[in-house]
Amino acid sequence: THVRLASLNGRRYELELRKQRYKCKSCHTTFGAITNLTKENQTLSSNLKNQIMLLARKGLSGQLIAEMCHCSPSSVRRTILERMEPHYRVAKLPKHLCFDEFRSTKSVMSFICCDAETHQIVTKLQDRLSPTIIDYFESRYSKAERECVQSVVIDLNAQYQSFIYRLFPNASIIIDRFHLVQLAGRALDNCRISILKQLDKQSREYKIMKSHWKLFHKKAEDLHPEEVVFLRGVKQYMTRQNAVDLITSKFSKFAEVYQTYQDITKALNERNSELLES
């Protein structure tokens, strides 16, 4: 048996291990000698596995670790999974939680929950179905523990709202700011596109709204009204503020949507709840 040893100076080292086999005279079964260098039926030594875990903690990729330790990427993955100790549950449920979903294997949407303050992962579930999430929290945390949760940050998914108060009776539901800005930005773009369809493609207004749509997503103070720039799509020199004013002065509906978008982003950035409610 060739046992892989820890890499030294970038070189690959192997130990040729000859195991003696024994035969029982009573039952006529055979068995081999064991060693503490590696586990049974494995060729990676314990020192090599320790080296793999040390490199993994430094944030190196599996492919790079495999090249440095002279083993396959699949061996690196198996070693990491073997040494990891999955947590059944966190010791103490955080007071502020974040719910979200992400695309995992085979394009399946999975559920993730983390601490809103420390960003430490609380759990990751294989799917985002309500029964799965409810069963996880109810089977692992007592009602008293769940009552200590003060807030849950979610996106605009109405599915989460249907069972949050069941799991966390005293928690407040908070909509993530990112999704609010995203929703307002989509409304602004939809209004802009609807106006574009009615304009002449050679007009200056069309070129501004088509080529320089990012100007309408900028903060008002970032338009720099005193700075004259060359707008490539329009092929004219003007300030960014003038380009925005040209559109908002001509299309009142777009001006209203644009101002609402600016108010929402400003209120969220300044944490001004009164401006957001107005």
From TrEMBL:
It comes from Limosilactobacillus reuteri (Lactobacillus reuteri). This is ISL3 family transposase. Residues 97-269 form the Transposase IS204/IS1001/IS1096/IS1165 DDE domain. PANTHER family: TRANSPOSASE FOR INSERTION SEQUENCE ELEMENT IS1557. InterPro entries: Transpos_ISL3, Transposase_DDE.
